[in-house]
Structure formats: structure tokens, C-alpha cells
Specification:
Length: about 100
């Protein structure tokens, strides 16, 4: 499988480590009143979709960037690759 890195161009998926659902970039607020419940859900609840899914990938054998890859879990076709920092900023996270 080829991942079209936004900065480096097409790279073999063997250079990357799959880390799960892209929702992991939306870490809960540790100071919230219900922080424990939020972190339990954050760490343990995952969807297992058939079809388009946003995933978090780490370029371990490259520039060590984090990517959000939109991939069809049935066909493995990749339709979009974004830097995770850009996705986080677009969703209102500054850090």
C-alpha cells in the first residue's frame, strides 16, 4: 500500500506505523469534572467501520510526522492524507 505523504510524496506503508482511529488526536481535557469517564472512552472505545475511515499513522522510518489517512477499510484505497497537526488546528486544537 502506498501512502502519498503531503510533504515527501508517495511512500510505502512499511515506513509507517498504524496507530488507530484518528479521533485519538482529540485528547480529553484532563481537568474536566468527568475526565476519568472521558479518558476511559478515549482509550477503550473504538468503532470498527467497513468503508471510509480516518486513521492515524506515524512515519517512523521517515520524517517522524503524524498523518491522518482516510482509507477504505474494505478496498484499502486511500482517498486523502493530511498532516495530523493541520487536522488538529482545523478542528480548533492549538497544541
Amino acid at each position: 500500500m502506498i501512502i502519498n505523504h503531503p510533504l515527501l510524496g508517495p511512500r510505502d506503508s512499511s515506513e509507517f506505523v498504524y496507530l488507530g482511529d484518528a479521533c485519538l488526536i482529540n485528547r480529553p481535557d484532563w481537568q474536566a469534572d468527568d475526565a476519568l469517564d472521558q479518558f476511559i472512552e478515549y482509550g477503550h472505545t473504538r468503532d470498527n467501520p467497513a468503508g471510509l475511515h480516518r486513521e492515524l499513522w506515524y512515519h517512523e522510518q521517515g520524517d517522524r510526522s503524524w498523518l491522518v489517512v482516510t482509507r477504505n477499510t474494505v478496498t484499502h484505497e486511500i482517498t486523502q492524507v493530511e498532516l495530523a497537526r493541520d487536522v488538529a488546528r482545523a478542528e480548533g486544537r492549538s497544541k
